[in-house]
Amino acid sequence: MNSREEKHELILKEAYTAAEQAALQSLKLKLARSSLSADHTMMRFLRARGLDVQLAFEMYVMAHNWRKTNEVDGQYARPPPMERLLKLAVPQELHGHDRGGRPVLIQKIGQMHLSTFIKFDPEIVNQCHIHQMEMLMKACEENSQRFRKRVTQVTIVVDAKGLGLSHRKAIQFSRGTSFIDKNYYPETLHQLIFINAPAIAPALWKIAKPMMDPSTQQKVLILGRNYHAKLHEIIAPEQLPKEYGGQCQCEERGGCVPEVPAAICKEAFKSEYSSTKKLSPKLNEIVIGARGSHTVEVEIGNPLGQEVSYLFSTSKNDIGFAVEFLPFERQPVLGAGEAQHLHQHAAAENEQKKRTLKAQLLLENVRYACPPDDPMTGSVRPNCAGICRFVFDNSFSRFTSKQLFFHVSVEDDDADGARTPSSSRSLSRHRFQSLDTNADSDEEEELPVLEVF
Q1: Which of 27, 52, 113, 363 could form a disulfide linkage to 323, CB 3.0–4.6 angstroms apart?
Q2: Which positions of the chain have pLDDT values less than 50?
Q3: Residue 415: how many other CB atoms lie within 10 Å
Q4: What is the reported pTM?
Q5: DSSP β-bridge partners for residue 356
Q6: Distance (Å, whole) CA 119 – CA 116
Q7: Residue 254 region, left (φ>0) first, then alpha (ψ -120 to 50), else beta?
Q8: What is the CATH number of the domain that holds 201?
Q9: Order of strands, sheet of 386-393, starting from the edge strand that comes earlier in the sequence
Q10: pLDDT per residue over 353-409, tens digit each?
């Protein structure tokens, strides 16, 4: 490295406190040489764990193994096939930088095409989110070189104009993306700014807030319609779209954060996404009575977790759907070699781990209208052994029974890493409640806003 390069490296180097420097050196000693990353990357994990070296080590190893297992560095260097469709449903773009040189992501959550968005497989949303995070990290590195100082965080602007109570149906997708951010991209958020926040914003914030770490909650700024002065303190006008009081128009791409009519989005989804759905060769068929529900349970035997896919539709009307997970007794944090050893002996030890813990809500109870020609599909992937419980809920309907078609299967990882369906043990429970003759209505009753944690 010549003197010019050394000077440039010093400019980019962050100034750490004595405690941070000591923690960083301790973490380096615990990590294998092949697992080491840049100092600023390891420091993000240390800060996320309050400079506790052991906790940061466990978090870092888990993230490192996740990146290797999922081939993040290679697979997510290119946009996922469905990313363009997702941007049609939820307008969003990486746009400029804030006054500190941090990349800015603008999302028009209030203008999302909700009926199309909730039909996306959560796994596809997660894949697109991982690619987006990789692009943001790349933008941080580019801005570090551009402004000759270390940039490790991003600023997100969320336009909430048009946001309503019905948008709570989309919050379930935040569970997967929040998990990814907290565990694999810690300390990458500088500030989350909501603008054009409507009156309903506090109710929606009440639902979303528990999904965030306390430190992340402190980074949230909620502004109403008179947001311009405060927003311009954080992001210079020349870095903002004209619609937000800025000077940029991005005419070459049809606008800074382009939107499309709902009809175009729906047609694109139907032609490009629906054709890629994996249809089940055989669907189970049941009738769920008024005020009743149907529960399907599948056992996850792999201590490292398995993907469980689902498909369902109704002959008419809507049905509530939620997914819960009851983990078996938790195991200590393991290295890659120990995890492989545990997997080899999982069958022998399985009976000793059948003590379940408190159920975790993977997907919140949301009502879906999904006719047989346009079924709802998706998947969840618990990260340990346990019971995955799929709940089809008709308790909100006081008088109307529902004909349900469904299929649930556990995916096995074969020797080549590909996932194939397995014939897992499935337990179904059918529950009915007595008819409430004092009920005022049937299908029009709204589900309550849920406190999910």
Answers
A1: 363
A2: 1-10, 278-281, 331-356, 414-453
A3: 5
A4: 0.62
A5: none
A6: 6
A7: left
A8: 3.40.525.10
A9: 360-368, 319-327, 386-393, 293-300, 426-431
A10: 444 467 888 888 988 888 877 788 888 888 888 899 999 999 998 888 898 989 898
